[in-house]
Each structure stands twice: as structure tokens, then as C-alpha cells.
Write a structure and sequence with these properties.
With 108 residues, this protein is mainly alpha-helical. The protein has one domain. Helix content is 61%, strand content 7%. It contains four helices and two strands; from the N terminus they run H-H-E-E-H-H. It has a two-stranded antiparallel sheet. A hairpin with a 4-residue loop joins strand 1 and strand 2. The protein starts with 6 loop residues before the first helix and ends in an 8-residue tail after the last helix.
């Protein structure tokens, strides 16, 4: 199944678009940034799958030694770009679970 057909993809995309609509940001430029974010989200999932499959290090056949799986550093770069887009759209991370449940940090 294509990743665009997964529930996670559809839920995230809808959430991002709904967040923009609530704030009145319905212009195409904002929707385009959501699509860019979703493209990066797909790429990040592919990189994570590669890391799970091959590990964080891989054998460099030319040098005959283990080297970093390039997917590790690429995943970091993609994640940073996703955060930049998320921030540029004015979206904010959900409050942490302790605050949502009414527990103050002082009580911990």
C-alpha cells in the first residue's frame, strides 16, 4: 500500500490542514508547505525503514569496514527541515502530557 493511503498519513495531513484553516491560513502557499512537509514525512519514514533494516552502520565494500548508514544523517536533516516548516506555519507542539493531565512540574 502506498504511504499516502495509510491512516497515519491521512490523519497527519488533515491535522495540519485543519490547523491552518482554524487560523484562517487557507491560501495555496500554506497548503503547498503542508504538501512539502508531507513529502518530507514520507522520506523520513523511508529512511527510518532503511535504518531498521540495515542498522546504523553498514559495510563499506570498497574500504572493507563499517561506516555510518547515510540514512542516519539524512534522517536528522529531514527532521530538522520538517521542524522548520512546522514552525514557519506557526504550528506548535501539543502541550506535554503532564500539563494536559493537570499535573504541575513542581509536583514531580
Amino acid at each position: 500500500m502506498a504511504i499516502e493511503q495509510t491512516k497515519a498519513y491521512k490523519t497527519l495531513r488533515k491535522s495540519l490542514l485543519d490547523g491552518l484553516e482554524v487560523r484562517g491560513l487557507v491560501e495555496e502557499v500554506y497548503r503547498d508547505k503542508v504538501e512539502e512537509y508531507m513529502t518530507l514525512w514520507r522520506q523520513l519514514r523511508e529512511l527510518q525503514e532503511d535504518i531498521e533494516e540495515r542498522g546504523v552502520t553498514v559495510m563499506d565494500e570498497k574500504r572493507g569496514m563499517l561506516v555510518e548508514n547515510r540514512s542516519v544523517s539524512l534522517a536528522t536533516q529531514v527532521s530538522k527541515q520538517m521542524l522548520a516548516i512546522y514552525t514557519a506555519l506557526g504550528l506548535k507542539p501539543a502541550e506535554n502530557s503532564a500539563r494536559r493531565s493537570g499535573v504541575d512540574d513542581d509536583e514531580l
